[in-house]
Automatic annotation (TrEMBL):
Gene3D superfamilies for the chain: Aldolase class I
Sorted UniProt keywords: Iron, Iron-sulfur, Metal-binding, S-adenosyl-L-methionine
GO molecular function, one term: catalytic activity
Name of this chain's protein: Radical SAM/Cys-rich domain protein
NCBIfam families assigned: rSAM_SeCys (TIGR04167)
Pfam family, one: Radical_SAM
Domain Arsenosugar biosynthesis radical SAM protein ArsS-like C-terminal: residue ranges: 193-320
Domain Radical SAM core: 37-183
Record bears the keyword Ubl conjugation: no
């Protein structure tokens, strides 16, 4: 369990999350729309805000056996969306097999990428592979200028990301309706993101004017106080203040559509979590089952495991 969960319990000025929502919203919906798979912590980057602490020195990867269990479960439940994340998911040796199989059982497959990994000679062929498979790409781009992004990800990462985005555009991503290219913006510090609509317009104007890049949509997310970002908050003395800001920004209108109500997150070892943030926090579903345990069984609603980090998904317009 992430140490910050224990720190939450000392924040008496922040009410327990469950006291803020309708008891019915503490349970999942009766249907499962999204199967999210975290297929490893290995990454070519070690971003300062990464909630799963991914990096080049991590070794955890999902096996093909666990992947096959996920595919079987998705087939049985007729899951609408398979969402593949990491780490850098491309660095899992069975990544291409997984994407190919996922596209056979599901009409909507998402891959979350940091872009820069796709310049590595070992993975650059995946750009065309994505286009052939028609997967939706969700890429993290901390900013549309080099200095701000390089502070978060390292020198040169902005230029690398731009090169990959231009290659994706050349193949039709962001232009062809079947090749969706979306971006995610996370603040670089203990502050909130700007208005999503305004930020998307700003990104689109600057990226197209400066680099000829187009994309479909931008999502602005509140940083969840987990992993490296949580460690930064503790180290800098900002944890209490940041959590108070999240609580003050609580929007009850976001609760009904929270991602944890309509998805399940599978870790590299097959363990199940209500969301990727609970995965990062080390908070498995209450039954502590694995994806293998769910094969051949009907899907049933369950109680969601919640704590004060859930305020990050209900602040403002929401981050689910």
């Amino acid at each position: 369990m992430d140490e910050i969960i224990n720190d939450f319990h000392d924040l008496d000025q922040i009410p327990v999350f469950q006291t803020q929502i309708d008891p019915e919203m503490m349970n999942t919906a009766d249907r499962l729309d999204v199967l999210q798979m975290n297929i490893g912590r290995v990454c070519n980057l070690a971003c300062k805000h990464c909630h799963v602490c991914a990096g080049p020195n991590r070794t955890e990867v999902m096996s093909r056996e666990v992947m096959a269990d996920c595919i079987q479960f998705a087939r049985e439940q007729q899951v609408q969306t398979i969402d593949i994340t990491g780490g850098a998911p491309e660095m899992n040796p069975d990544f291409e097999w997984l994407v190919t199989e996922a596209c056979k059982v599901c009409s909507h497959v998402i891959v979350r990428t940091n872009l820069t990994v796709l310049l590595n000679p070992e993975y650059e062929h995946l750009i065309e592979f994505y286009a052939r498979q028609k997967v939706e790409i969700v890429c993290s781009l901390p900013y549309y200028r080099a200095d701000q992004m390089d502070r978060v990800r390292g020198t040169g990462t902005f230029d690398e990301a731009i090169q990959v985005l231009q290659k994706l555009n050349t193949l039709g991503y962001g232009k062809n309706p079947e090749l969706v290219l979306n971006m995610v913006y996370n603040p670089a510090g203990a502050f909130f993101p700007p208005d999503q609509t305004a930020m998307e317009l700003e990104y689109k104007e600057h990226l197209e004017a400066d680099f000829g890049i187009v994309f479909n949509a931008l999502y602005t997310l509140y940083n969840n106080p987990m992993g490296r970002f949580g460690a930064f908050l503790r180290r800098s003395g900002n944890l209490s203040g940041y959590m108070k800001k999240l609580y003050d920004a609580f929007n009850p209108a976001t609760v009904e559509a929270l991602m944890c109500r309509f998805q399940i997150s599978v870790d590299y070892d097959g363990k199940l979590y209500d969301c990727d943030f609970n995965l990062a926090a080390g908070l498995p579903i209450f039954s502590k089952e694995t994806i293998a345990d769910w094969i051949g069984k009907p899907y049933t609603a369950r109680k969601i495991r919640m704590d004060k980090h859930c305020y990050a998904c209900t602040a403002g317009a929401g981050s689910s």
